[in-house]
Design goal:
mainly beta, Immunoglobulin-like, elongated, CSF2R factor, signal, cytokine receptor activity
């Protein structure tokens, strides 16, 4: 589709990551041909039932241009969330960028909890136990797969 605005003025390299269960960072780079005074604004809609809201805590570069956003209390409640970054400049119209993102695909899980190793000599063997990582949306612990690396020293 052709968007109104100056070519290559929309943001580039947009990406988001969720960490520590409910925090999310989104970052981007200014469009390569955007005028120097271009400022960008991020809006997102977590689900169809939610209102579209603007970022409350922008990450700024050394020139004061918004290049990211920090979110708190993020909940993964729906299949896809909508992100929109538009821009403004005195000199020209700025193209917008939008994307639907499946939040569960960008979540960095915490490590498993309460990892314990119990070894015995008779018979020789060890039992390793742990609890599932904390997450905002996985209710079925059978969804997790684990890999154990055992190194003898």
């Amino acid at each position: 589709p052709v968007f109104a605005g100056m070519n290559r003025s929309a943001i580039e390299n947009f990406s988001c990551v969720i960490y520590n269960i409910s925090l999310m960072n989104c970052t981007w780079q200014a469009g390569r041909d955007a005028p120097g005074d271009t400022q960008y604004f991020l809006y997102w809609q977590n689900s169809r039932d939610d209102d579209e809201t603007e970022c409350e805590l922008y990450i700024k570069d050394e020139n004061g241009r918004n290049t990211g956003c920090r979110f708190q209390n993020v909940r993964i409640v729906t299949e896809k969330s909508y992100f929109l970054v538009n821009g403004s400049s005195k000199d020209s119209r700025i193209q917008f960028y939008d994307e639907y993102i499946q939040l569960y695909k960008i979540e960095i899980l915490t490590p498993p909890l309460k990892v314990a190793v119990n070894c015995t000599r008779d018979p020789v063997g060890c039992i390793i136990t742990w609890q599932a990582p904390l997450t905002s949306h996985v209710e079925n612990e059978n969804c997790f797969q684990y890999e154990i690396s055992i190194q003898n020293k």
